[in-house]
Fold this sequence. Notes:
Number of helices: 4
Helix content: 55-70%
Pfam family, one: Dimer_Tnp_Tn5
Protein name: Transposase Tn5 dimerisation domain-containing protein
InterPro entries: RNaseH-like_sf (IPR012337), Transposase_Tn5 (IPR003201), Transposase_Tn5-like_C (IPR014737)
Domain Transposase Tn5 dimerisation: 6-87
Distance between the termini: 39 Å
Organism: Candidatus Thiothrix singaporensis
Order of helices and strands: HHHH
Mean pLDDT: 91
Amino acid sequence: xxxxxxxxxxxxxxxxxxxxxxxxxxxxHWVARKPLPAEPPTLNTMIRMAAxxxxxLGRKQDGEPGVKTLWTGLQRLMDFAAGIQAFREQQxxx
Length: 94
């Protein structure tokens, strides 16, 4: 968690695919009801989006997300990605 937080702050323009799979960042966009970008988002964008699932509001005066909201958000993000993966693997909707 600390590495995610530190890298998001010191190298915010890195591609999120260094730490997140394609399914994870796409799941984050789908659940947040944001359009999928043509290229993977930046690491800072993805960390803030994941922390949002953990309760981070992202207001102007809030600063960067903390470890607790990021941890909670990443847990939820993993659940979202697993659900979407399971849905994709289904051949039929019964």
